[in-house]
Amino acid sequence: MEKSKAELKVSIWKAIAQSGVPFNNLSNEDQSRFVDQLTETLYPMLFSETENIQSVDPVPESDDELEEVLWHGRPFLSLVESYTITNERIKIVRGLISKDIENFELIRVQDLDVSQSVGDRLIGIGDITISGADASSPMIILRNVPQPHDVYELLRKAWLAARKKYGLIFREEM
Fold it and tell me: Chain centroid to CA 135: how far?
């Protein structure tokens, strides 16, 4: 927990430095108090979600319908977005103070793709594009995912298992 707080504090200092806001007008003591207070305020909002995923027990209708978290992560250098892949859906949470939660059912997925630029390959990140039959968002992109090929394979296997579970088969168009 203390390591996560320290990393958050470092990220806040970096964001302030990159923002170009004249923060030097404040004394060093005031700057430190500001960053400490911001860290203490933001930490519960940012990290309570991952703790809740492990501590909340879903109420299954039967033993076969237990939703299991397969992967949870954040885009590279993002504090405001997180992705969760379960055996039933893809969940995207955006926002720092207010939250926007988007769910994409795995059985609605029609195609998966991975893309990496040269720079992305050097630092081990990439984008996963998911096309589907969801009317509200027919395409979603999981951006800057660490180890994208591993996440892609995990997602592909979960997708195939969900389709098999509900008796959906692939049919090629001619």
Answer: 22
Q: What span, in angstroms and rounded, lies between the C-alpha atoms of 70 and 84? A: 8
Specify the pTM. Answer: 0.61
pLDDT digits (tens, 9 = 90+) for 107-123: 999 999 999 999 999 99
Q: 59 and 66 in contact (C-beta within 8 Å)?
A: no
Packing angle between helix 2-19 and helix 28-55, nearest 10 degrees?
Answer: 130
Structure tokens at 58: 């879903």
Each residue's pLDDT tens digit, 17-29: 777 777 778 888 8
Rounded to whole angstroms, the Cα distance separating 102 from 60 reads 21
Domain chopping of the chain, boundaries: 2-53, 67-165
CATH topology of domain 67-165: PH-domain like (2.30.29)
